[in-house]
Structures are given as structure tokens and as C-alpha cells.
Write a structure and sequence with these properties.
Helix content is 36%, strand content 18%. The chain is α+β, with helices and mostly antiparallel strands. The chain binds adenosine monophosphate and zinc ion.
Length: 666
């Protein structure tokens, strides 16, 4: 094979794996194998720029920046859908159709109504040309660069495709990915997104397509539109789209009559909560295309389709009061305290109000009757106020101006939604929150110390920052509530053990704003020790892979603060790992994937447990005895002669710990 042939073969193979993974949800190779092949392709492409192809799987990571999204006319108009809310509405609609078509029997396709952002994608000669948002239906924004990063959207089609067509679909953010994104935001002290739909549509308008590439968006398709008729029925259209490589949800169903439509609706009304993404109804479409054509369109929507909206799980209740929570980064979140009410199987007492703008927008007042809804999110939200029930003496809410915990005047930075309390070192929930973050599992992982105990220790005046943890004595903590001999010992031991936690986790534990787990690893790996990070300039930091201005600024600000520097110096004296120790580094990699190791003997650089952990951290497995499945035996001093013989007989590679280090560090 020459280079071009290798490149083409790799592209084809990777495209197929993308399809298996993102469209069929059935991967056939491991992520690691995929990444290896992708890297191989990337290198070949870099060495041979003459073979660049914007449709290569390597281009899915994005990078293109769109400063202004160009307004683009739709060749075929993007219509809305009429809504119905009851069986009677649907029966009326069937009658209207039959009036136009003559008294014919109608068959339908039932599809779920995906709740995201609508998109129209144009393909020419089997290649993605353009992706445009709905806009006003006549023209929308060209978001092609961003759509190209969504891996379930084919860049090139398979099979027998029409030369030119538009395909319509919905960009959604599945719950799982949404929760994960929010988890990461919460971890670094940022406000979480409020719901998957807005996050999905907001994603389409991000200027940096590399950011879009990182979001786990999906594209679900439902209609192919062409100049010439290519299918006879709606259902065949779905099958065609599927055969061309698009993601077309399997729930769509061809039904023989309106009663079967009702069955479909009833089924999904209760089962929709098990779907991986949000749906807000069912779309019923007349199946025969010639009947669709005869029915035509109103000014806004097709006459041959009707959306049925599920009843939102919504109740009304009274707003008793608003409390304001202070997070560990000082950010203020208003929370509504409601008269308890039953909703979607749970009792709801509180709802998030997000920020001052949200309160303003809802114009919510104490003692108002409000509608509360539960969407895909865990915390329910207030949708609107029932103005007919408003008390005449009600007053507009004055958002707090001072921190409810420490009375410091609140600050609101330009461009940020939330107010925050700037009293970083004197505001109790911030101090407690920081220490709780410090001891958490992904940070210092301190066994024997829980979040409540941190609050107890703080309130007893025993700790005021995380470095104080290392000065605690058993005598000090024994008198605390619910503390016994054993739990006190555990606490002291847990704190002492945390001195072994590797640098990258310590860096994350410090709680620098915007420095999450991944960023901490990047910084640790790049700078190797805390002093190097502390002395890095804004520019230095921004040159590190994946570190942007916002993170860089936050790191610089953290080390400019004298209190922080003092705390870190105290941590240093206590023996906390503030530099990389290659030996217990937990840089996770996959270099040992699918490899089975057996460890035998005693070692110099590692304890046996450390060695096993290192194997697992790099994706390998630890076997208990040597067998034909074993790939490597790591031999230390005093390896048993029987084992040695067995390994030799089976032809298994025997390595020492230094050679093992080479394996994982290469
Ligand atoms: P509406 O926004 O209420 O006018 O509803 C029309 C929108 O519903 C379309 O623009 C699509 O974005 C969206 N939609 C979601 N699922 C479907 C589906 N299965 N068929 C047609 N439209 C759908
Ligand atoms: Zn405060």
C-alpha cells in the first residue's frame, strides 16, 4: 500500500467505527484501539498535507472558529408542527384529513418528538455540505463547522443516496452526557446548565467548534427532503435515512389506524422516562407521501402531521420563602422553599431559582402560587407564577445585597449570571466547602473524615483551612460530638495517609477555580511541581495544551494571594506531595490494555501493591497465577523457582521493575 492508500483505508475503517459506536451504539473495538488508529491517521495526514480531506475522521475534533454565523436561506422551508393535547384533538385531525382526501382509511407513522434544537443538513453527492438551524423557518444560521463535530452525523454517506437532498433532525444532548457535563462544572465551582435542550441549542452557536466536539451531542433524523420523490411512504423515508448511515431512533413505528396511534402514545407517556434523551411528545404523520402532498401545508405547518404533547409533570404550590446558598467558590444560588407537594412520584419542597435574573424574569413573589415542573433534571424548577392567585399586597423580591452567611457585600462580575461573596477566607460555607472538597474522594481521598465532621471541626474552631487538618491531635477531636476512640484514630490515620496522595490529585484538591481533575493532571504533568506552577506567567500557562485564558487567569490569581501561598507552604512542611513523584504517579493511560501481568518476588522501587496499582492504572490486569493467558511476569528478588520455570516453559516475557517502568512511560 502506498501512503495515500493507507490514509484512505484508515479513514474508511475509522468512519465505520464511528458509525458502529455513535449511530448503532454497538462498538466493535475498544476506545484505546480506536484512539491508536486515529493517532496513526493524524500522523500520516500531518506528514502528507497534500492529502488533506475535511471529511476525514480526524477533523471531528473541531478547531474551526465561526465568528459570525452566516444567515442562510432554506431551499425547502422548515415548518412548525400543530399541537394536540387529547385524543379528541387527534380524532378531529383525522376527520379533517379525511375530508380533504375523501373518506379513505389512513395509516400513520408515530415518532417521538425529540426535545432539542432542529437542524437541516444538506448533502450533495453523498457528502455533507451545509447544516443550518431552523431560524424563522425561511432562513437560519449556518452552523456547519459545529455540526461536523457530532459523530453520529455522517460526513459521507453509504449506499444509494439521492444526488441532492436535505435531511431534517433534532440535535439533542442525552441525559447521561448532560449530567456528566454538569458534574464537571460543579466540581470546578461553576454553575451547572439548567436543562439539556437549552444546552444543546446553545452548543450549536458556540464559536469554537472544538468546544462543540467535546459535548456529547447526538443528531436524530426524521425526514429526507428532495426535489424528486424518492420514497412512497414516511416510513420508507426513515428506513432510507437509516440505510444511508443516519441515526434514526428505532422507536418510530408504522401503525395501521388511529387506535394504534393511541396505543403508541399511551405506551410512551409512561415509558418516555426510560429514554436516554428528553422527549416532549409524539409526532403523528400520515404515512403515504401522495396523501401528504394532497394535504399540503397551512401557513405554518404541514396538514399531514400533528404533534401530541405529553402532559408535563407539573403541579402548582405556594412559595413560602427564598433561601440563598453559598457555594465553596462563594457563588450564591437562590432556592425556593415551597409548600410540600407531590410531583412525579416524589415530594417536592424546594426548587432551584438559578440567579437574580431568573427571579426577575419570573417576577416571582413570596406567597405566590407557582407552577413547578420536573424535567430531566434532578431538582425541579419553577415554570411560572399563577398571577390570578397573587395577593394584592405582594411585593417584588429585592435580591440580597449581602452574604447571608458573613454579611459581606456581594459582587457580580460583568458577564456572569451569579452574585458571589468575595470574603473567600472569612465566609464559613466557603471555608467548609473548600475543606470538604480537599478531602473528597477524587482529591485527597481522606478516609475517616466526612463532610459533616469537617463542619464540626470548623465550628469547634479546630480548623480554618485545609492545612490545619495536618495539625489535628486525637486529644483535640475526642471531645467532639459522636467522636469515639476508634473514629478519632481513623481520622488521624486518614489525614496522615493522605500525604501519599500524588501531586496531580493534591493540585486538584487545592480547589483553584476552573482547575478540575483533567486540568490538574495537565498542569501537574507539564510543570512537575507546585513552585513551577506558582511562578508561571499568564502566557506560560496559556501555552500548555488545553489551558485557556480563563483557567490561566484563575491559576495566576490563586498564587498571587498571600494566604494561599502561606497555606501551601504549610502543606509543604507537613510533607504533602507537591511535586511529581514518578513512582506513585497515577497518570492513567491505556498502554497496558488487554495485557495480563503476574507479579512475583520483592521489589525495590515499588511495594507489591503499588506495582499492582500501577498496572491497573495503565489499563492492564493483574493475574494471580501464571497461565498461558499471562503476557508478562514482573520478577523481583526471590522469585520462586517453580514460577520461573513455568513462565519459561510457556514462553512468557519476564521483565524487571525497571523494564516495567519503561513500558508504562513510553
Ligand atoms: P414546534 O417547535 O413545536 O413547532 O415543533 C416542530 C419541531 O419539532 C420541529 O422543528 C423539530 O425540530 C421538532 N421535532 C422533534 N421531533 C420531531 C419529529 N419526529 N418529527 C418532526 N419534527 C420533530
Ligand atoms: Zn460570605
Amino acid at each position: 500500500m502506498n501512503t495515500l492508500e493507507s490514509i484512505l483505508a484508515l479513514r474508511k475503517e475509522l468512519e465505520l467505527h464511528n458509525y458502529n459506536y455513535y449511530v448503532l451504539d454497538k462498538p466493535t473495538i475498544s476506545d484505546f484501539e480506536f484512539d491508536t488508529k486515529l493517532k496513526e491517521l493524524q500522523e500520516l495526514e500531518e506528514q502528507n498535507p497534500q492529502f488533506f480531506d475535511e471529511n476525514s475522521p480526524t477533523q471531528r475534533v473541531g478547531g474551526a472558529i465561526t465568528k459570525n454565523f452566516e444567515t442562510t436561506k432554506h431551499k425547502f422551508r422548515m415548518y412548525s408542527l400543530d399541537n394536540s393535547y387529547s385524543k379528541e384533538d387527534l380524532l378531529d385531525w383525522e376527520k379533517r384529513c379525511q375530508k380533504v382526501l375523501g373518506d379513505v382509511h389512513l395509516e400513520y407513522v408515530c415518532e417521538l418528538k425529540y426535545d432539542g434544537a432542529s437542524i437541516s443538513i444538506t448533502y450533495e453527492n453523498g457528502v455533507l455540505k451545509k447544516a443550518v438551524t431552523r431560524g424563522d423557518g425561511f432562513q437560519g444560521d449556518d452552523v456547519t463547522n459545529n455540526i461536523r463535530t457530532i459523530k453520529s452525523v455522517p460526513l459521507k454517506l453509504k449506499g444509494d443516496y439521492p444526488d441532492f437532498f436535505e435531511i431534517r433532525g433534532e440535535i439533542v444532548l442525552p441525559f447521561e452526557g448532560f449530567e456528566k457535563m454538569n458534574q464537571e462544572l460543579i466540581e470546578i465551582g461553576e454553575a451547572p446548565y439548567s436543562n439539556p435542550r437549552n444546552t444543546a441549542s446553545g452548543s450549536l452557536k458556540l464559536q469554537d467548534s472544538a468546544e462543540v466536539a467535546k459535548r456529547p451531542l447526538e443528531c436524530l433524523l426524521y425526514t429526507i427532503i428532495t426535489d424528486d420523490k424518492v420514497v412512497d411512504t414516511q416510513f420508507e423515508g426513515l428506513e432510507l435515512a437509516r440505510n444511508l448511515g443516519f441515526k434514526v431512533p428505532e422507536q418510530s413505528k408504522h401503525v395501521k389506524n388511529i387506535d394504534e396511534v393511541f396505543e403508541f402514545i399511551n405506551y410512551w407517556d409512561t415509558h418516555r422516562h426510560n429514554l436516554p434523551y428528553e422527549t416532549d411528545g409524539v409526532v403523528v404523520k400520515v404515512n403515504e407521501v401522495f396523501q401528504q402532498e394532497e394535504l399540503g401545508y397551512t401557513a405554518k405547518s404541514p396538514r399531514w402531521a400533528m404533534a401530541y404533547k405529553f402532559k408535563a409533570e407539573q403541579v402548582s404550590t405556594v412559595l413560602n420563602s427564598i433561601s440563598y446558598q453559598v457555594g465553596r467558590t462563594g457563588s450564591i444560588t437562590p432556592v425556593a422553599n415551597l409548600e410540600p407537594v407531590q410531583l412525579a412520584g416524589t415530594i417536592v419542597k424546594r426548587a432551584s431559582l438559578h440567579n437574580a435574573d431568573q427571579i426577575e424574569k419570573l417576577d416571582i413573589r413570596i406567597n405566590d402560587t407557582v407552577f413547578v415542573e420536573k424535567g430531566g433534571e434532578i431538582i425541579p424548577k419553577i415554570i411560572s407564577v399563577d398571577l390570578s392567585k397573587r395577593k394584592p399586597d405582594s411585593e417584588k423580591i429585592n435580591y440580597i445585597t449581602h452574604c447571608p452567611e458573613c454579611q459581606t457585600e456581594l459582587v457580580r462580575t460583568e458577564g456572569e449570571a451569579n452574585h458571589y461573596c468575595p470574603n473567600f477566607y472569612g465566609c464559613p460555607p466557603q471555608i467548609i466547602g473548600r475543606i470538604q472538597h480537599f478531602i473528597s474522594r477524587k482529591a485527597m481521598d481522606i478516609d475517616g473524615l466526612g463532610g459533616e465532621t469537617v463542619a464540626l471541626l470548623f465550628n469547634a474552631g479546630l480548623i480554618n483551612d485545609y492545612a490545619d487538618l495536618y495539625d489535628l491531635t486525637k486529644e483535640q477531636i475526642l471531645p467532639l460530638e459522636r467522636m469515639a476512640e476508634k473514629s478519632a484514630d481513623n481520622l488521624i490515620k486518614g489525614v496522615a495517609d493522605s500525604k501519599k496522595i500524588p501531586f496531580e490529585s493534591v493540585l486538584y484538591a487545592l480547589g483553584i477555580r476552573y482547575v478540575g481533575e483533567t486540568v490538574a493532571k495537565k498542569l501537574a504533568k507539564h510543570y512537575k511541581n507546585i513552585d513551577a506552577i506558582a511562578h508561571a506567567t499568564l502566557l506560560d500557562l496559556m501555552l500548555v495544551d488545553e489551558i485557556g485564558e480563563k483557567i490561566a487567569q484563575s491559576v495566576v490569581a490563586f498564587f498571587e494571594n498571600k494566604t494561599n501561598v502561606q497555606i501551601i507552604n504549610r502543606l509543604k512542611i507537613k510533607g504533602i506531595q507537591l511535586e511529581m513523584n514518578e513512582k506513585n504517579s497515577t497518570f492513567i493511560s491505556n498502554v497496558l490494555e488487554n495485557k495480563i501481568f503476574v507479579v512475583s518476588g520483592v521489589f525495590e522501587l515499588y511495594s507489591r501493591d503499588e506495582l499492582k496499582k500501577a498496572i491497573e492504572d495503565h489499563g492492564g490486569k493483574v493475574g494471580s497465577s501464571i497461565s498461558s493467558k499471562t503476557n508478562y511476569v514482573i520478577a523481583g528478588d526471590n522469585m520462586g523457582p517453580a514460577k520461573l520455570e513455568k513462565a519459561n516453559k510457556l514462553g512468557i516475557t519476564i521483565i524487571n521493575e525497571k523494564e516495567f517502568n519503561k513500558l508504562i512511560n513510553d
